[in-house]
Amino acid sequence: MSLHQRPHQKPPATDSLPASAAAAAAAPSRPLPLLTLPYLFSLLALLLLLALLFPWGPPRHSSAPASPWRGYTLQEAAAFAARAGNGTIVLAAVSGPYLPFLSNWLITVRRAGRADQVLVVAEDYDTLERINAAWPGHAVLVPPAPDAQVAHKFGSQGFFNFTSRRPRHLLQILELGYSVMYNDVDMVWLADPFPYIVGDHDVYFMDDMTPVKPLDHSHELPPPGKKGRTYICSCMIFLRPTEGAKLLLRKWIEELKEQPWSKKQKANDQPAFNWALNKTAGQVDVYLLPQSAFPTGGLYFKNKTWVKETKGKHVIIHNNYITGFEKKIKRFRDHGLWLVDEHSDESPLGRI
Hints:
Elements: H1 19-26, H2 37-53, H3 74-84, E1 88-94, H4 99-111, E2 118-122, H5 125-134, E3 139-140, H6 157-163, H7 166-175, E4 179-183, E5 187-189, E6 203-207, E7 232-239, H8 243-258, H9 269-279, E8 286-288, H10 297-300, H11 304-309, E9 316-318, H12 325-334, H13 340-343
Parallel strand pairs: 1-2, 1-4, 2-3, 6-8
Antiparallel strand pairs: 4-7, 5-9, 6-7
């Protein structure tokens, strides 16, 4: 017999089968119900209906990967920016409405050769994605994100919540071992500010008062004003990762908790910063930057005589002592400092 042939087998006798199987074998064959024409037509109609309702098939989860920036941590982002600055970061914090100001500020920072060490704390996820799409790695979000729609109105609770996160961001960066220069984005750089970070002090800052100081004024913390505290601007601060700088930031955070926002007292972060400076005086080595290089907006934009007398000395200009986006933009334009209209190609963000 061939190896590929099977031996013929006789079917088993009916009486050797189980009773149920024997009965089934003896019963006349009938067409299966599933193969009847009415059933086939019903099945075809159902398939056509499903094709109309779901032309691309049942819902599927997107196979596109989630944005990598959602899991991007401050530790990773700070290390990225600090590598370009030999351990020093230039920090800003923005929500969506401030993007044009961020771009304008970045043009001037880039001209000073410091853009690579910039880290932007995005205060909403859309801003995080937009910045990193144009400039990968330079933006991070530190959760939880505040309400971006109300964070831009000066004096609002949203603005307070937005600015009160600042000392926490700075403290985290110091705890990672980096030095950091913080700037508000309604500023412009006319020169590199780092040559003015002289000595080995814990904290450097600029005065927010408008009275003209002598060119050789003291670099110590000014005396308190009428409200019992100094009037230092929290808009521009340089900190080293020292115990003194960390002490100041922790005190700033404490003062913010003790002076929360209310409808009666529409606080921002600056009074708390000044109380922290005053209450840690003698424990923190501080340095007041020269007014001629770091003037407040109330002096630079309103005292033309002083501007002429100190021409060539200005380094960072703050567009404060005025509120409202449009007013700030107009003032910058009037003084040739709104650069994004004609020089957006110089911004790492391009035209936004």
